[in-house]
Amino acid sequence: MREKYAGLDKAYLKNMEPINTFSDYYKRFKKTYHLLLQLESIVFKNKSIPKVSSLVEAMFMAELKNLLLTAGHDLDAIDLPIKLDVSNGGEKYTQISGQEKELIYNDMMVSDSKGIISSIIYGPDKRTQITPNTQNVLFVVYAPPGIEKSKVFQHLQDIQNYVHIIAPESEVELLKVYK
User: Fold this and answer.
1) Each residue of 150-160: pLDDT tens digit?
2) Which of 11, 55, 96, 117 is surrounded by the most beta carbons within 10 Å?
3) What share of residues in the chain are helix, strand, coil (percent, to 5)?
4) What's residue 141's pLDDT?
Protein backbone atom coordinates (compact mmCIF):
# COMPACT_ATOMS: atom_id res chain seq x y z
CA MET A 1 0.00 0.00 0.00
CA ARG A 2 2.81 2.36 0.89
CA GLU A 3 4.54 1.69 -2.44
CA LYS A 4 1.30 2.01 -4.40
CA TYR A 5 0.49 5.42 -2.93
CA ALA A 6 4.06 6.69 -2.45
CA GLY A 7 4.39 10.35 -3.30
CA LEU A 8 0.66 11.02 -3.25
CA ASP A 9 -1.01 13.32 -0.77
CA LYS A 10 -4.25 13.15 1.22
CA ALA A 11 -6.10 15.35 -1.27
CA TYR A 12 -5.25 12.97 -4.11
CA LEU A 13 -6.44 9.94 -2.12
CA LYS A 14 -9.70 11.68 -1.26
CA ASN A 15 -10.46 12.28 -4.94
CA MET A 16 -9.75 8.71 -6.08
CA GLU A 17 -12.57 6.37 -7.00
CA PRO A 18 -14.29 4.80 -5.12
CA ILE A 19 -13.21 6.94 -2.15
CA ASN A 20 -14.85 10.06 -3.55
CA THR A 21 -18.17 8.22 -4.05
CA PHE A 22 -18.09 7.03 -0.43
CA SER A 23 -16.99 10.48 0.78
CA ASP A 24 -19.98 12.05 -0.98
CA TYR A 25 -22.27 9.49 0.68
CA TYR A 26 -20.75 10.16 4.12
CA LYS A 27 -20.98 13.96 3.64
CA ARG A 28 -24.78 13.65 3.51
CA PHE A 29 -24.55 12.49 7.13
CA LYS A 30 -21.81 14.99 8.11
CA LYS A 31 -19.33 12.10 8.49
CA THR A 32 -15.93 11.22 7.05
CA TYR A 33 -15.36 7.96 5.18
CA HIS A 34 -13.44 6.06 7.83
CA LEU A 35 -11.74 3.71 5.35
CA LEU A 36 -10.00 6.78 3.92
CA LEU A 37 -8.73 7.60 7.41
CA GLN A 38 -7.49 4.02 7.86
CA LEU A 39 -5.75 4.12 4.47
CA GLU A 40 -4.09 7.41 5.39
CA SER A 41 -2.85 5.99 8.70
CA ILE A 42 -1.26 3.02 6.93
CA VAL A 43 0.21 5.00 4.02
CA PHE A 44 1.28 8.20 5.77
CA LYS A 45 1.75 7.16 9.40
CA ASN A 46 3.25 3.67 8.82
CA LYS A 47 0.54 1.97 10.89
CA SER A 48 -0.12 -1.74 10.44
CA ILE A 49 -3.29 -3.65 9.76
CA PRO A 50 -4.92 -4.18 13.16
CA LYS A 51 -4.57 -7.71 14.54
CA VAL A 52 -8.10 -8.79 15.43
CA SER A 53 -8.70 -12.19 13.85
CA SER A 54 -7.59 -13.75 10.58
CA LEU A 55 -11.05 -13.33 9.03
CA VAL A 56 -11.16 -9.64 9.94
CA GLU A 57 -7.63 -9.15 8.63
CA ALA A 58 -8.55 -10.83 5.32
CA MET A 59 -11.57 -8.53 5.02
CA PHE A 60 -9.51 -5.46 5.91
CA MET A 61 -6.79 -6.30 3.37
CA ALA A 62 -9.44 -6.49 0.63
CA GLU A 63 -10.99 -3.23 1.87
CA LEU A 64 -7.65 -1.46 1.55
CA LYS A 65 -6.95 -2.99 -1.85
CA ASN A 66 -10.34 -2.10 -3.32
CA LEU A 67 -11.35 0.78 -1.02
CA LEU A 68 -14.82 -0.72 -0.60
CA LEU A 69 -16.49 -0.73 2.81
CA THR A 70 -17.19 -4.20 4.18
CA ALA A 71 -18.87 -5.51 7.32
CA GLY A 72 -18.07 -8.99 8.62
CA HIS A 73 -20.43 -11.04 10.77
CA ASP A 74 -20.39 -14.41 12.50
CA LEU A 75 -23.03 -16.19 10.44
CA ASP A 76 -23.85 -18.58 13.30
CA ALA A 77 -24.86 -15.57 15.45
CA ILE A 78 -27.27 -14.28 12.80
CA ASP A 79 -30.95 -15.16 13.05
CA LEU A 80 -31.87 -15.61 9.38
CA PRO A 81 -33.24 -14.24 7.17
CA ILE A 82 -31.21 -11.10 6.64
CA LYS A 83 -32.69 -7.97 5.14
CA LEU A 84 -30.96 -5.20 3.17
CA ASP A 85 -32.73 -1.90 3.77
CA VAL A 86 -32.54 1.84 4.32
CA SER A 87 -33.07 3.23 7.81
CA ASN A 88 -36.11 5.29 8.81
CA GLY A 89 -34.01 7.00 11.45
CA GLY A 90 -34.27 6.20 15.13
CA GLU A 91 -33.58 2.47 14.88
CA LYS A 92 -31.09 1.40 17.53
CA TYR A 93 -28.43 -1.28 17.85
CA THR A 94 -25.27 -1.98 19.81
CA GLN A 95 -22.02 -1.37 17.96
CA ILE A 96 -18.92 -3.57 18.34
CA SER A 97 -17.64 -1.02 20.87
CA GLY A 98 -20.66 -1.80 23.07
CA GLN A 99 -22.13 1.66 22.51
CA GLU A 100 -25.81 1.87 21.58
CA LYS A 101 -26.28 3.81 18.37
CA GLU A 102 -29.35 5.37 16.80
CA LEU A 103 -29.39 5.26 13.02
CA ILE A 104 -29.61 8.36 10.89
CA TYR A 105 -32.47 8.64 8.38
CA ASN A 106 -31.79 7.04 4.99
CA ASP A 107 -28.58 5.17 5.85
CA MET A 108 -27.99 1.72 4.31
CA MET A 109 -28.39 -1.07 6.85
CA VAL A 110 -28.60 -4.83 7.22
CA SER A 111 -30.73 -6.60 9.80
CA ASP A 112 -31.73 -10.09 10.83
CA SER A 113 -34.88 -11.18 12.66
CA LYS A 114 -33.39 -9.99 15.99
CA GLY A 115 -32.39 -6.51 14.82
CA ILE A 116 -29.82 -4.41 13.00
CA ILE A 117 -26.46 -6.06 12.37
CA SER A 118 -24.75 -3.14 10.59
CA SER A 119 -25.11 0.19 8.87
CA ILE A 120 -22.81 1.94 6.46
CA ILE A 121 -22.25 4.95 8.73
CA TYR A 122 -21.88 3.19 12.10
CA GLY A 123 -20.55 -0.24 11.14
CA PRO A 124 -21.24 -3.75 12.43
CA ASP A 125 -22.94 -4.76 15.66
CA LYS A 126 -21.57 -6.48 18.74
CA ARG A 127 -23.97 -9.46 18.72
CA THR A 128 -22.77 -10.86 15.37
CA GLN A 129 -19.14 -9.74 15.47
CA ILE A 130 -16.42 -12.02 14.16
CA THR A 131 -14.46 -13.67 16.97
CA PRO A 132 -11.50 -16.06 17.01
CA ASN A 133 -14.09 -18.88 17.32
CA THR A 134 -16.07 -17.86 14.22
CA GLN A 135 -16.51 -20.82 11.86
CA ASN A 136 -19.02 -19.38 9.36
CA VAL A 137 -18.90 -15.81 8.17
CA LEU A 138 -21.04 -13.33 6.26
CA PHE A 139 -19.30 -10.45 4.49
CA VAL A 140 -21.47 -7.51 3.43
CA VAL A 141 -20.07 -4.94 1.03
CA TYR A 142 -21.77 -1.57 1.10
CA ALA A 143 -21.81 0.22 -2.24
CA PRO A 144 -23.50 3.61 -2.64
CA PRO A 145 -24.80 4.56 -6.10
CA GLY A 146 -21.87 5.03 -8.46
CA ILE A 147 -19.97 1.91 -7.39
CA GLU A 148 -19.96 -0.64 -10.20
CA LYS A 149 -21.41 -4.08 -9.52
CA SER A 150 -18.32 -5.68 -11.09
CA LYS A 151 -16.07 -3.89 -8.56
CA VAL A 152 -18.14 -5.25 -5.67
CA PHE A 153 -18.02 -8.75 -7.13
CA GLN A 154 -14.23 -8.57 -7.57
CA HIS A 155 -13.91 -7.31 -4.00
CA LEU A 156 -15.87 -10.32 -2.72
CA GLN A 157 -13.61 -12.60 -4.76
CA ASP A 158 -10.55 -10.93 -3.21
CA ILE A 159 -11.95 -11.58 0.27
CA GLN A 160 -12.57 -15.19 -0.75
CA ASN A 161 -8.98 -15.53 -1.98
CA TYR A 162 -7.55 -14.05 1.23
CA VAL A 163 -9.70 -16.31 3.38
CA HIS A 164 -8.50 -19.32 1.36
CA ILE A 165 -4.91 -18.38 2.26
CA ILE A 166 -5.66 -18.66 5.99
CA ALA A 167 -8.22 -21.47 5.65
CA PRO A 168 -7.56 -23.49 2.47
CA GLU A 169 -10.41 -25.87 3.28
CA SER A 170 -12.97 -23.05 3.46
CA GLU A 171 -15.94 -23.08 1.10
CA VAL A 172 -18.11 -20.31 -0.28
CA GLU A 173 -21.82 -21.06 -0.22
CA LEU A 174 -22.95 -17.84 -1.90
CA LEU A 175 -21.11 -14.98 -3.57
CA LYS A 176 -23.70 -12.55 -4.89
CA VAL A 177 -24.14 -8.84 -5.46
CA TYR A 178 -27.65 -7.45 -4.79
CA LYS A 179 -29.07 -4.14 -5.98
Assistant:
1) 999 999 999 99
2) 117
3) 35, 20, 45
4) 97
Q: pLDDT tens-digit profile of 46-67?
A: 888 777 789 999 999 999 999 9
Res 49: pLDDT = 77
What's the mean pLDDT in 87-99? 96
Could you give the C-alpha distances from 119 to 8, 68, 69, 85, in angstroms and in order?
30, 14, 11, 9
pTM of the shown model:
0.92
The conformation of residue 77, written as its DSSP 8-state character, comes to G
Of 142, 172, 153, 162, residue with least CA distance to 59: 162
Kindly give, in sequence order, each residue whose CB lies less than 8 Å from that of residue 28, ignoring residues fewer than 6 positions away: 106
Sheet holding 123-124, edge to edge: 83-86, 108-112, 115-119, 123-124
Report the candidate in 60, 50, 71, 57 with the shortest Cα–Cα distance to residue 127: 71
CA–CA separation, 71 vs 142, rounded Å?
8
Cα 96 vs. chain centroid, distance in angstroms? 13
